[in-house]
Amino acid sequence: MQVYKLVEASGGGPFIFGGDSAYLAAWPKNPDSQELMLLFTINCKIAKQRLKRSDLPSDGFLHVFSTYEPEGYFVDSITVDEVQQAKGMDSYTYVVHANGAKSVKSSGPSIPLRFADFEECSIDNDELSVASLLALDAPAGALIPMELSENYNFLCQVYSSDFPAPYQDALYMTDGVGYLLINKNIGDDKSDGCFFVQVA
Q1: What is the mean pLDDT of the chain?
Q2: Which of 101, 125, 134 is nearest to 14 (CA)?
Q3: Where are the domains of the chain?
Q4: Which residues of 83-110 are buried (b: 16+ CB within 10 A; e: fewer)?
Q5: Residue of 123, 137, 164, 156 whose CA lies nearest to 47
Q6: Which residue among 20, 138, 141, 173 is the one 20 to 30 A from 130 at the CA level?
Q7: How many Å apart are CA 54 and CA 163, to the nearest integer?
Q8: Chain centre distance of CA 186
Q9: For residue 1, which of 97, 128, 115, 106 has the smallest C-alpha distance?
Q10: DSSP 141-155
Q11: pLDDT digits (tens, 9 = 90+) for 84-116
Q12: Element containing residue 92 per DSSP (H, E)
C-alpha cells in the first residue's frame, strides 16, 4: 500500500510536532479541567495538495491535542473507548480544524517544536508498521471501530518515540501508536476528527 512516512525537516514542513501555540480562541481542556497538550499540527493546504486528499480542508490547520500526565496513569483516558464524537464536548483528546488568524499560547509544559515532511513510499498490505505515516487506509494492526469508520476517514498514525525528547512518552508508552481520523464532513455536528492510542 502507498503511504507517506514522516521524515524530519529543517526550517519548516506540513507536519509539526509539538509547539505551545494554536489558532484557537482558548486552549482546550479535558473533562477534569486540565489543559491538554498539543501533540501535532497539520497544514491542511499543503497536505491536501501533496496527499491528494479530498476530505482535507483547503486551508487552515488540524490541531491534535491529548491529555498528558507524566506522573500518572493516563493511558485509559486516551484509548478509543474515550473518543467523543459530538462537537463541543470536553474530551481527553481533541482534534480541531482551526482557520483563525489569532493564536493562543499554552500556559503549561509543551512538546518542543519539530517539523516533518512527507516521504512517499510503500509497505506490504499485511505489514504491521508502527512508523509515523499518513495513508488513505489504516495499516494492518490498526483497530479502527466500525462506528468511527461511518463518519471518519483514517488520516495518519504517529509513533510515540518519534516525539521530540523528553516527550517520547507523549502517548503514555514509548511504543504507543496514536491514530488520527478526520471527519468526512468537517463542519457538521460531529467533532472535526478523532484521536486515540493503542498500546501493546
Answers
A1: 93
A2: 134
A3: 2-198
A4: bbbeeeeebbbbbbbbeeeeeeebeeee
A5: 156
A6: 20
A7: 28
A8: 15
A9: 128
A10: T----HHHHTTEEEE
A11: 888 888 899 999 999 877 899 999 999 999 999
A12: none
Could you tell me which CATH class the domain 2-198 is placed in? mainly beta
Share of the chain above pLDDT 90, in %: 78
End-to-end CA distance of the chain: 23
Block residue for cell numbers 482535507: 56
Length of the chain: 200
DSSP 19-84: -SEESSSS--B-TTSPBPEEEEEEEHHHHHHHHT-TTS-SSSEEEEEE---TTS--GGGGSGGG--
3-state secondary structure of 121: strand
How far is Cα 52 from Cα 46, in angstroms, rounded to an integer? 10
3-class DSSP state for residue 197?
Answer: strand
Q: How far is CA 57 from the centre of its chain?
A: 15
Tens of pLDDT, residue by residue over 1-42, are 999 999 999 888 999 999 999 999 999 999 999 999 999 999
Lookup result for grid cell 516527550: 167
Distance separating alpha carbons of residues 47 and 134, to the nearest angstrom: 10
The pTM assigned to this predicted structure is 0.96
Cβ–Cβ < 8 Å for 79, 173: no
